[in-house]
Amino acid sequence: MRTVGVEEELLLVDPETGEPRAMSAAVLARAERDGAEPDVFEKELHEQMLEFATHPQSSMESLHAEIVRCRKEAAGHAEEIGCTVAALATSPLPVSPAIGMNRRYRWMEEQYGIATREQLVLGCHVHVSVESDEEGVGVVDRLRPWLPVLAALSANSPYWQGKDSGYSSYRSRVWQRWPSAGPTEIFGSAECYHRRVADMVATGTILDEGMIYFDARLSQRYPTVEIRVSDVCLHAETAALIATFARALVDTAAGEWRDGREPLDPGVSLLRLAAWQAARSGLTGELLDPRTMRRMPAEAVVRTLLEHAAGALEANGDLERAREGCARLLRDGNGAQVQRALMDRSGSLRDVVTECVRHTQA
């Protein structure tokens, strides 16, 4: 059974006002003094962000438990110095992002200007183990049409600089400002994949392979495919659901690759439209069906995802978990829907943030 690990980026906020706080360095120092396990918590581009990484897990129940534990630990370290964490993919309240004092981050600011200064967006990255680069590229080639559905399930960023963006996942639209971000063409082989990455780095437009921001890529650090389309999810159980589907999609794609089945190839232009539609409507309207690239109700597209991955989900013992998770999201709403419902009730984005702090650790 493939192992799965999750990286989540959390927003550091004032527990009373909900305003973002540029305190990641202080939180990390506190975590080290508190004896936190090495390499679990890390800095990110902006000082208002804190990242954690789980261990690889075979059991989705164990992965969910570790996400919950890491969120609580992050909150504990933050609260000791006067802030807390919120699993929000953008800040609902206005913010002036503070870029970390790091040579890499300063290079990015000089190279990309305002796109770097405005990149206070928080995602959830899922690593799924693969046996080789060849299998990994076979998987990457076959995941492409299904990734917008994961983005729709995870959507958790409706607000931007104090206003409703009109999107369910505005984070994904901001993320697309990076020159290497988004869907990719079919590579066909590991050799072609690595050659394309080398050619991109050789342009000087990006600093190194770490700035290959494909929607799904081969990890530099681990023998995994890394899926990077999801917002950080408001609830830990939604993050676990995204990871559950990620593993099942990798299993399904790897089986198709081994059987010599050609990947669906709607083309990058249509994949971009599918990603835009997922960001715009989340689970509240229509999505593009991965098989036909035509609009269908979000609920029907989620059912299509379940059907596509059902064999792998069942083999992994995850089918009932996936069905229940999808039913819950379609009934209760994803993070974007919860945020908007909170705003409708309170009329205050400050209240939205402070209530989402509670959801983060639930």
UniProtKB/TrEMBL annotation:
Pfam families xrefs: GCS2 (PF04107)
Entry keywords, A to Z: ATP-binding, Ligase, Nucleotide-binding
GO molecular function: ATP binding; glutamate-cysteine ligase activity
Catalytic activity line of the entry: L-cysteine + L-glutamate + ATP = gamma-L-glutamyl-L-cysteine + ADP + phosphate + H(+)
EC number(s) given by UniProt: 6.3.2.2
Top-level EC class as recorded in UniProt: ligase
Function, in words: ATP-dependent carboxylate-amine ligase which exhibits weak glutamate--cysteine ligase activity.
Protein name: Putative glutamate--cysteine ligase 2
Annotated organism of origin: Streptomyces calvus
Source taxonomy: Bacteria, Bacillati, Actinomycetota, Actinomycetes, Kitasatosporales
